[in-house]
Amino acid sequence: MLANKRMNFIEEEWSLDHAESFKLSTPTLPVVTDWDEPEKQATPRKTWLKSHHLSKAATPLTLLGLLGLWQLLTSLALYPEYILPTPIKVAARFGEVAQSGALWRHMQTTLLEAALGFGSALLVVGLLCYPIAHSRLVASLLSPILAATQAIPLVAIAPLLVIWFGFGLPPKVITCALIVFFPLLLNAVAGLKGIDKSLTEAASVCGASRWQAFWWLELPLALPTMLTGVKIGFTVAITGAVVGEFISSDSGLGYLLNLGRGQFDTALVFVALLTLTAIAMAAYGLVGLVEKRFANW
Questions:
Q1: What is the pLDDT of residues 231-284, one digit of tens each?
Q2: Residue 77 lies in a domain
Q3: Residue 118's pLDDT is what?
């Protein structure tokens, strides 16, 4: 019995010695608790929130800075008021034109011309972008024609369009379509050509037809580049409408610009310019929302 007790004591002493040696040989790791994690994440999150709020406030601050610079130039009397009117006078003139209903009528005309021109160009681009991107023959045949159309200034073509199509809506719509067509086509073709060929080959191996490969593979992959062209083209379409209205029109924001210039009503010119700027910014933001919704995957 004494022998058994002695053996148990020896075993316990041996296990304690080995446990101590195991503790000494095992590297000690830092203890991380749950309450340490928020402190580590606090700085990046605060930085992100700060940059997010600054990006939201950047546009209003820029507009306020430009407005302050405008007011400063008018207060220094560097230019007479009929050349550079004060922001207050432009706001008062804006209220007069808006209250009379003339501003909305001219905006409707310009927006209709820009929308029809943009839609026509988009339809033609939708028919041509795929053959140009996938066929060298079609690309070589159409490239000289497209380059020639871009080499001629639209201001030179617009009078011819008036002679051919009259003084109504068609020449303005064609002018918008011509100015929008090339950016849309370039971005659409670049988007389709930038797709990895191995993906289309894999789709054909899996049994997908050309239409299925285009609809389910090529179009989603090319959509971000295409929407960049749409974003540029939709804003440039407003410029095309104004160029057409400069040549011949009795309504529209381009006509309003001509009217203010002819009557030396600089405040009216500023009203038309600021309205055009607001429309272009709204169109740019609208296409940006569509891009976030459909192409931000």
A1: 888 888 888 888 888 887 888 899 999 898 888 888 899 999 999 989 988 888
A2: no
A3: 92
Domain contains 7: no
Indicate whether 206 belongs to any domain.
yes
- Within a domain: residue 72? no
Contacts of 184 (CB under 8 A, 6+ apart): 121, 122, 125, 229, 230, 233
pLDDT at residue number 157: 81
What is the CATH number for 217? 1.10.3720.10
Other C-beta atoms lying within 10 Å of the C-beta of residue 283: 22
Q: Look at residue 138 in the predicted model and tell me its pLDDT.
A: 87
For residue 198, the enclosing domain spans 87-294
For residues 185 and 193, give the distance between their C-alpha atoms in angstroms, rounded to a whole number: 12
Q: How confident is the model at residue 295 (pLDDT cuts 50, 70, 90)?
A: low
Task: Count CB neighbours of 133 within 10 A.
Answer: 20
Note the pLDDT of residue 43: 52
Note the Cα 45 to chain centre separation in Å.
Answer: 27
Residue 200, token pair as written in the block: 């289309």
pLDDT above 50 (res 35):
no
Contact 252, 110 (CB under 8 A): yes
**Per-residue burial over 263-281, b = 16 or more CB atoms within 10 Å of its CB, e = otherwise:** eebbbbbbbbbebbeebbe
| Domain count for the chain | 1
Residue with tokens 């040549």, as numbered in its chain = 247
| Max Cα–Cα distance, the chain, nearest Å | 126
Cα 82 from Cα 95, distance rounded (Å): 18
Query: What does the alpha-carbon distance between residue 119 and residue 247 come to, in Å, rounded to a whole number?
Result: 22
> What is the model's pLDDT at position 3?
45
